[in-house]
Amino acid sequence: MSKGKRPASKKTQAKHGKSQTWIIMITTVVVLVLILAIVAIVFQNQKHSSDGAKGGGDGAIQYDHQPALGAKDAPVKVAEFGDYRCMYCRQFELDVFPKLKKDFIDTGKVRFYFMNYTILGTGSVLAADAGEYIYAKHPEKFWDFHRLVYENQGPETEEWVTTDLLVKLAKQAVPDLDVNGFKWALDQGTYKDAIKKDIEMGKAAGVQGTPTVYINGKMASDPLDYNQLKADIQNALEDVHD
Ligand code: CA
Description:
The structure is a single chain. The N and C termini lie far apart (88 Å). Strand 4 (212-215) and strand 5 form a beta hairpin. By secondary structure, the chain is an alpha+beta fold. It has a five-stranded mixed β-sheet with strand order 1-3-2-4-5. The longest helix is centred in the N-terminal third of the chain and has 53 residues, at 2-54. The protein contains eight helices and five strands; from the N terminus they run H-E-E-H-E-H-H-H-H-H-E-E-H. It is extended, with a radius of gyration of 29 Å. Calcium ion (CA) binds at residues 66, 115-116, 132, 194, 198.
């Protein structure tokens, strides 16, 4: 009986030997595939960050389909994330923006963008919706309307944003406004997806409050201090020319 056992045991050993070779081969293949997958992921991530750098920023800010002012080929892009009910955004619009426009936008150095970042309730969203409507239907009148809303801003403690006020301001900016279409868009929240997109982009870029301003994708340290903002923009212009 013991004679008969030996060959059987050798057979088993041979079988074990074969299956071990298979396990090693499969493991090697799996490890190689994993390594290749990791290399591919790392390469892809590097590609994304260099794409962002090519755009001059961190890649989070998408400028397409946003209200823009200034030369299309301006070397520096300045993007403001704002809320029409925010008093500091009003300060930016009325005190800082005219200087920025005169020094950099009108001279072809900066293209300026406005994105909605609604943080102060339903009035903020209603005003943002109105802005998106004007931009969609009368893009050339957007900045007039934008300024009018800030000029007519009420106290933050009051819900001063009403459809009636927005109609009044929109008619001032766009004399031939389709009032019913405008009201309908406000009632329906037609541009809520556009606003949501702006907010998600702001969050991805690191917006914490309003106004937050990006200069070629880099957050400005203090947008309400024009001298600081001016220095930041000049630095960005030098970076572009380097
Ligand atoms: Ca927008």
